[in-house]
């Protein structure tokens, strides 16, 4: 976890204060049976085993807040009425669950939720427990110093930078400016003493992949720096590259009461004939997939399945696409077209999932209040196959599949998974990032598979019982087709993958089976009925938005006790979590093969600069709540790191160093400043100030190279001198985009792109600062795009793309005069990689790369590969699990990078590559 991200899925220190259970028939205890302290807050994370009277003549929310107020010494919540806003009050079978949202000085606190559980019978009410996250150490001012306009601009820039860095889109990012943002108000992030931020939602379309984009971005409201961002899309499988889909507005069918209900039929993908609940639409004189039978005793809202086969995924995300209609047939028997589109499966499965939640848990629809359920089936990716499914906040969207994959609605577990995201969102609302996001996915997987195994009668001890999505393939066998396996045996200590939010939203799919595997083991051990009730109660009555794996364990155990699980059953629940390594302090058990230079830097998406035997990075405090400062240290680990930048409330980021000078960017509420300071000491010098600067910085001697991206204009690589900070365009002020600069031996290398007669041409150039001569590098094949550059030791290196899909890249090398062009890593075929970043020393070049794979897994994550300059050697820099990128080379073959394998963000190093891994 890094920076403000440390609050995503942060674990609490679980210390049980529970006395032994009272003997049967004994008087109830006067106080709580169990109290678990919160972390970095005086408010307890869990208070359980209460039987304390509560006010019965008022509403549930008021009674809950009065209880908290009457026990201030226990809960440490000074003014519950002022600081806790009712979010939800659910009553079922005499039990009441009240969710309260924390507000600090009137501003909502991200993840600050407290839950009070009560019983009401015979006109009396008692409180049985309370839990959640209420942050007592907040001290921040709530008056913003950054206006909405700048916050939105910085959020859009940050989202653009993050998606652009992940690959794809090329010059289209500069030309199209495809993203836009909207401020959603002030939010306090509960890091340290609190961080006031603007919450901005960024939407648009990725110019490289065509995928819709939705990013939730939080911008420091004093300095204007984006401290946290993640994708808001909840997909069944992780996309091949970071991409997202916006939410659609809530929609209730406008045809709910038109025409009589009819029992119809159709054939599912697996060949089974099934009954479908339909409606005869009098206006269309056709039978439509509109089920009005299931909610007839409530709000009378329908379960509808809509034909979206002529719509792209971007058209159905963030809006209700005009003109679409429910699937229809002239007779109640739907034919093969509805089968192939996935409509029969979607409609039948949605009814089965609704029935499960209604019958097993008494829940009326996804929102618990009888809300309409809408499924859009058959969407494409601009006419190309779209093989995925997602919940966008109001509806399910299913891709139509391709030559290998059936329509994604063909999996009952997939439908159950996506609908469960709606249940999660309308209960615990687990933030879809990091550990909380992995639990969101895990619970969706659990209930999706629970519905499937129950409906199809699959034994829990079947080796295939834990597979998800195994029925989606046309040719592959189930185990090869499955997206995940809840019986994969992964544990937190040996399998957890530390990644940034750029990758799979911080590992929401990558790490989900660690938690869902524990739940699935529990289901096998204690039985379906009790296990399902336990998980549902933990979700709806205990979990809160920022909970991580350890809180999840505590919630499940508390729910099991509530449901009167026996001592043997409670042992089985504990055993399930222990077997998957989910125990207090599990993060400390992970191992690495690197040496730590600085621990817990708590920053996100910030480069490590290196050169001349030194490294430089940005660092926050241990809680990740302090604005970042730049620190530098010796690459050999001798001596203590030293602070280079002032600690003045600005965000000092993206440092670069040549071992003598450190340069970096400082974000404040008006501008971004380019600053420099000698490592040996001396005053900080401001070299440049502007509205928009890219994160690409390099320094060598007196020369500083920077990439600037003026809004609405081309990206420009410029250089300036410490002795004369007047920017000079490296391209000579031509109508050319320039990007990805590097500097070495008095020469600057950079990538170029230029539009001519509607087509883009790409290249790599070198500017000799001494002679002023620009040299264009030769190329191999047909260049589709070019990326990061590095220059050192008499060679120029760059990432070159020759693939039509815009993803695979070659690590290419040329002599300084542009000749003798060779590929150190091929552009296509076996051994090809997806390059992200490139750095070099006189001895080697190191690339941060993806490995093409059909799904996210450890070996497909960004890893560091090092190539000798002659191309004869190719080694993995480190075998650490998780993500490795944004590295620097201080000299020789040594590499320094920020690593999150252990769940903490540490600056680490290896002096030589690890070689081969696994």
Topology:
Elements: E1 34-36, E2 46-54, H1 60-70, H2 72-75, H3 80-83, E3 84-92, E4 95-104, E5 107-121, E6 124-133, H4 148-165, H5 172-176, E7 179-189, E8 195-205, E9 212-220, E10 226-231, E11 234-235, E12 261-267, E13 273-281, E14 286-288, E15 290-291, E16 303-307, H6 313-316, E17 328-329, H7 336-341, H8 343-361, E18 373-379, E19 389-391, E20 396-399, H9 412-425, H10 434-456, E21 467-468, H11 478-481, E22 484-485, H12 492-495, H13 504-507, H14 512-526, H15 528-541, H16 549-562, H17 567-579, E23 595-598, E24 609-611, E25 614-619, E26 629-634, E27 642-643, E28 651-657, E29 661-667, E30 672-678, E31 685-690, E32 697-700, E33 703-708, E34 716-721, E35 728-729, E36 737-744, E37 747-756, E38 759-768, E39 774-776, E40 785-792, E41 795-801, E42 810-815, E43 822-825, E44 834-840, E45 844-850, E46 863-868, E47 874-876, E48 884-891, E49 894-899, E50 906-910
Parallel strand pairs: 5-7, 16-18, 18-20
Antiparallel strand pairs: 1-2, 2-6, 3-4, 4-5, 5-6, 7-8, 8-9, 9-10, 11-19, 12-13, 13-14, 14-17, 15-16, 19-20, 21-22, 23-50, 24-25, 25-26, 26-27, 28-29, 29-30, 30-31, 32-33, 33-34, 34-35, 36-37, 37-38, 38-39, 40-41, 41-42, 42-43, 44-45, 45-46, 46-47, 48-49, 49-50
Helix pairs in contact: 8-9, 9-10, 10-14, 14-15, 14-17, 15-16, 16-17
